[in-house]
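I am still learning, so would you mind making up any protein sequence you like and the tokens describing how it folds?
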Amino acid sequence: MKLFSKYFVTIFGIGYSPLAPGTLGSIFAILIWYMSINFINIYFFYLILIISLSISFKLINIYLISEVKDDPSEVIIDEYIGQSIPLLFLIDYNLYEVLLAFCAFRFFDITKVYPINRAENLSGAKGVIIDDIIAGIYSLIIIMFYKIILSF
């Protein structure tokens, strides 16, 4: 189970990249979303997100048992989950909206504006995942404002 948790939370080792592993986790979410809407359907993306979210808490806690840091940089399933939140509401491919969702999520994930900074202090998997969920919700709000402004 420990080996499976390692592969899952690092998204098959992508998290071990020496260059921007969190950004790669976000890009992975965009790739899964893109393949889902173009080759399968959006419900596949929803299903993958639900499964990922439901087992992430347990698997991250298993992985953290042997780690010194509270939120190791190689754990990027949380970036996948957070980046997926604004993508849930993009049902067709629009490059500007995808870039906006990506940039907004990365901004909020990196800057840790309130209450993201508070959520990061939670213990175990909760602290790893919930801050990215909040960053994803903030990014979704940005996307919604963008869509509202375009509708005028």
